[in-house]
Amino acid sequence: MVSFIGCATIPSSKAVAVQDADQRIVESCKFVGSVTGTSGWGDLAEAIGISNAKNEAREKAAQLSATHIVWTLVEGGHNPNVTANAYKCE
Question: Coil, strand or helix: which one is 45?
């Protein structure tokens, strides 16, 4: 049995505030940029890797003052990576 406890990154409070959305939700919001995230945790720890990559992208979105994020690519495998569009909604 393999345990990966403690390997997941913990996002900042600003990153946690960035909400997942779809294109319909952000249609009247301001696009603030594209963000990406990657993780070295893949294969057997793919779920942790995807979570870490999303946390990295969420941190970048928070730095752009985004309130919402729309995922455009989520890839697992050996080197999980994500791409998203960040939006600021009033």
Answer: helix
Backbone φ and ψ for 57, nearest 5 degrees, come out as -65, -40
d(CA 36, CA 65): 15
Domain boundaries, given as residue ranges, for the chain: 36-90
The Cα 28–Cα 25 span in angstroms is: 8
Residue in 63, 68, 66, 58 with CA at minimum distance from that of residue 25: 68
Residue-wise pLDDT tens for the chain (90 aa)?
Answer: 343 444 667 889 999 999 999 999 999 999 999 999 998 766 667 788 899 999 999 999 999 999 999 999 998 888 899 999 999 998
